[in-house]
Amino acid sequence: MSTIDTAPPDSTALQIPLARNASIDGMDAYRALVTEANQDYEAFWARLAREHLAWHRPFTKVLNDTDAPFYHWFEDGELNASYNCLDRNLINGLAEKTAIVFESDDGKLTHVTYQALYHRVCRLANALRARGVKKGDRVVIYMPMSVEGVVAMLACARIGAPHSVVFGGFSAKSLHERIVDIGACAVITADEQVRAGKTLPLKTIVDEALAMGGAAGIKTVAIYRRTGGQIPWINERDKWLHELEAAQPDTCEPEWVGAEHPLFVLYTSGSTGTPKGVQHSTGGYLLWAAATMKWTFDIKPEDVFWCTADIGWITGHTYICYGPTAVGATQVIFEGVPTYPNAGRFWEMIQRHKVSIFYTAPTAIRSLIKSADANHAVHPDSFDLSSLRLLGTVGEPINPSAWTWYARHVGGGRCPVLDTFWQTETGGHMISPLPGVTPLVPGSCTLPMPGIDAAIVDETGEEVPNGNGGVLVIRKPWPSMIRTIWGNPERFRQGYFPGELGGKLYLAGDGAIRDRDTGYFTITGRIDDVLNVSGHRLGTMEIESALAAHPLVAEAAVVGRPDETAGEAIVAFVVLKAERPSGADAKRVADELRAWVGKEIGPIAKPKDIRFGDAMPKTRSGKVVRRLLRSVAKGEVISQDTSTVENPAVISQFADAA
Ligand code: PRX
């Protein structure tokens, strides 16, 4: 459970009006779409796929479920994602429209029109082809937030090479694992990335990762020159991105691919094992990226859209790279962090760029509330935010008080707040208010999108009555769903369509509850061993394995603890091979372990709190008693029955923080 605030919201005074003339205009229009989907599910999706996408070869089949749960959508249709996101806009007269306003960490602005974006993508696509990258080959992208990052993704899409973007905060080891698992033939990176005035070496990390072995297939490392800093260089393999682009023509015939052709693979954490490569299709994925831009964000030609996510996460894929461009929108892309040069940066940027739709994470809101409370100069009230008309949040449950602050101080009490629930696996929004439809309740993601058959069931797969909590499932396949786990179809089947629930329901991995009267959904947090730290998804097992790999460590267990700002904080319980450390010694070892996890996975996985004990609390059969550790992590008095624990004495040792 990562819901951290159950205090009653002070939102009763906030009567946020519905958006007028919205893409789905009113509850009746929403119900009509839901009915259309219920009456003829395939016809509903076929209509949307024809309306939202340009097909090179029209599809005749809609859903093929003979191989369920490996569903195929629009499978005999052919299209190209970059064509839909670029060429189509030029044909529609948007060549001179600004596609991207890029703001760098130090505030420099770059405007890129759709025409310019098209030429850059074509050049890089040609360059990749010239380097031997062809349809089906995989390309890893390890880039900062940049125009070049989006160009790289769309260039891969243009030649039918699935990309796998790795978040720039991941370590060399994490990058290496992903490069090897996906069997990449090229990496696109930058010399350095710049965040909050500091540079971080990306190319050096790529070299470190490639030197770990198993990556002989990498024939090209293309490097975007962001800072001009010193970097290692290997002739033949390493190429400057601008030189690759400059040598190529600025048009490029797209590779027409089948709708099921993998557009990308994005790694995410599960409760067990190594991160899994979530594979998405071209047609179904892009359809939902475009449709949700219209339905949830009600995107209009004059809007300025800003999603603050990183392209290394699914939100950056769907609502930076593909969604906004598929609908020909103007968007802001930001290189930096919300607190640099001060915590007013977001509000200042909304004011400067006249942002009308703003999409961010609850963690960012919570940390900015603190800063705003401490300093009025960085309070949203100190900026002109009148351009805003819609606000969104994603990634974690939003506590009602943060929701209300966001609605009141950022949205001025007039902008609907869209609490969008979805996942890497779902490709796009699953449950979300729609701005012209849904009366809002703080902390609730309200109702499923039309076409999405969400339900709450018990552990046997039976639907539970409203008001009773349970497990969130999606009952029917939908076009933008995960297709498989790269290289591990069995893990896909068992993990997402478990036999216990009958094998047909998609298991999201979240607990949820529906309101007794309205049927609104509220997500109560993950039901598995996945943590959500500042909206970053991490598996407890990954962190445990990283800790256990340290030479000093005998055993480690990791749990989450509710955290006021981050949503959840990582707490690690560690048994050393040597004696249990105490005092300054414990602090020194804890710091070393923290740095180690940063190196093994990335800084986002560093435990906030590390505790030491002589042994792990275990049952007689040797299972770590996690429920006890969760209570200890929260600082609760242990009132639970500990009679099944073999060594209850260690529990009190773990109660002391290092
Ligand atoms: O636990 C849910 C939480 O984030 C998980 C998905 O994480 P990830 O695949 O990294 O994708 C995040 C961005 C789409 C979910 O299983 N989550 C996401 N959105 C919400 C949420 N929890 C509550 N409310 C949300 N709006």
Automatic annotation (TrEMBL):
In this chain the AMP-binding enzyme C-terminal domain maps to: 542-623
Domain Acetyl-coenzyme A synthetase N-terminal, chain residue ranges per copy: 30-85
GO term, biological process aspect, one: acetyl-CoA biosynthetic process from acetate
Binding of Mg(2+): at which residues? Answer: 550, 553
State the reactions this protein catalyses. Answer: acetate + ATP + CoA = acetyl-CoA + AMP + diphosphate
Highest taxon in the source lineage: Bacteria
Tell me which Pfam families the record gives: ACAS_N, AMP-binding, AMP-binding_C
Binding-site positions, CoA: 195-198, 315, 534
What is the E.C. number? 6.2.1.1
Q: Where, by residue number, does ATP bind?
A: 395-397, 419-424, 510, 526, 537
Tell me the keywords, alphabetical order.
Answer: Acetylation, ATP-binding, Ligase, Magnesium, Metal-binding, Nucleotide-binding
Q: List the GO terms this entry assigns under cellular component, sorted alphabetically.
A: cytosol
**Boundaries of each AMP-dependent synthetase/ligase domain copy?**
95-478
Cofactor(s) recorded for this entry are: Mg(2+)
* Record's function text: Catalyzes the conversion of acetate into acetyl-CoA (AcCoA), an essential intermediate at the junction of anabolic and catabolic pathways. AcsA undergoes a two-step reaction. In the first half reaction, AcsA combines acetate with ATP to form acetyl-adenylate (AcAMP) intermediate. In the second half reaction, it can then transfer the acetyl group from AcAMP to the sulfhydryl group of CoA, forming the product AcCoA.
Record protein name field: Acetyl-coenzyme A synthetase
Q: Which organism is it from?
A: Paraburkholderia aromaticivorans
